[in-house]
Amino acid sequence: MSIRVRATTPTDDQAREALRGKPVAEHRPSENVAKPEGELAFSVSDLSLWYSGKQALTKVGLDIARKQVTALIGPSGCGKSTLIRCLNRMNDLIPGVTIEGNVSYRNADIYGSDVDPVEVRRRIGMVFQKPNPFPKSIYDNVAFGAKVNGFRGNLDDLVESSLKRAALWDEVKDDLKKSGLALSGGQQQRLCIARALANNPDVILMDEPCSALDPIATLKIEDLMRELTTDYTIVVVTHNMQQAARVSDYTAFMLTDEEITGQLIEYAPTETMFTQPADQRTEDYISGRFG
Length: 291
What we know:
Blueprint: E1 6-7, H1 11-19, E2 40-51, E3 54-65, E4 69-73, H2 80-86, E5 97-105, E6 108-109, H3 117-123, E7 124-127, H4 138-148, H5 155-165, H6 169-172, H7 185-197, E8 203-207, H8 215-228, E9 233-237, H9 241-247, E10 250-255, E11 263-269, H10 270-275, H11 280-286
Helix pairs in contact: 4-5, 4-7, 5-7, 7-8
């Protein structure tokens, strides 16, 4: 097994220096980690991460199946968003980050020296917690990434197909010149999904995509997630237990306690996780006893 310590900025040298000689609580990775059946999109092993010397993930290991929805749950500050950002190298953009361990995407090490992080982010798209359309027309929002990446096909067809896959076409097809900022919150989030789809990704990462939306808009996004698994792998961070139960095939529960930060407690098929959790801490969290 190869272990990598990678500096994204000069400040990482200071971060590693601060870690030397620092006592670390013994951590044994959880045994309650299921291995999904079928083809895998990701395989994560012994993944640890520090922000300027402060540990955020501790030896996380799990496999994520292709063309399924995997939900990451756990209390605030347990490392869910950090983990999902490791899957497309978004953490590279944060000064002072140090990473150890391995993340492979379809059997390729995405942190390899010969891997282009921009291409990683094209293949593994991201939808953020708050809708962030560009101050451009609906059409230009969807077409933007394709233009930047040198798309040479028919842009009109690409915009239409992307909006259809994002279940937004029927609502905006007569107003494509309208600003994306003029849409409702739920429509803006689906526009951001369409923008990601236009880059022809294989995976869509969603970091609490419904937290700012009303219940009706939330249900539309959840329905869309299930529809998209026909062609895409989806990994979603959510604080909503009902949402995780409704949309996901597998669920990972993460936790930070007094000694270990960002640890994976349990990973199982969603139905098993919510009906027969193997760890008492998982049961306590999903039943609302803490978090």
